[in-house]
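Could someone model uracil with this protein?
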Amino acid sequence: IPMRGPATARGDSLDGLRDAAANCRRCPLWEPATQTVFGEGPPDAQIMLVGEQPGDSEDLSGHPFVGPAGQLLNQALQELGIDRSTLYLTNAVKHFRFERRGKKRIHSKPQVTHINACRPWLMAEIEQVNPKVIVCLGASAARAVFGSGFNLTRDRGRWHTLEDGTRGFATVHPSWVLRQDPEKRDAGYQLFREDLRRLKEPPT
Ligand code: URA
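Reply:
Sure, complex below.
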């Protein structure tokens, strides 16, 4: 389990980090993307949610989890009685990676090089917010936070401990739920929501 990274230059506050990340050139994803989508939420949030990367809506709006995946996340949080505005929401990769097909921009999975290039921002966010609990949505986020050995199928929904003592767990990504065949989608959603229910219990 990797240690938290050093805060980057100008990384003495979340606002400083956000400003610096707006001009990030650590990987090539900045160029076709509209903007950096940095994390958002209370700077002293107890819970941090880490997704994979912004999607089309997030890229255009500049805010994390505002598109279809964000709507599904909202539904699950609402059903669990968890107030989204108390959470710090961010992503392992802060630029939208996509392929153009005509006028459409099709989401394409970030590579390990993109995740590694972006990792100092995530580590600096974790350092600044210092959450009690980190929830990773999907395998990319889980590997970025818990290390490359993380196996989502095997390890989802189980508490883990980072080197500095922060607790966390991973669940499936809401976009994965949305990609399921209609007859499997409800089961996928239940899995997602029931893993998130851990947020209502003390870590074990
Ligand atoms: N999916 C993510 O992983 N993050 C977002 O911000 C939106 C969709």
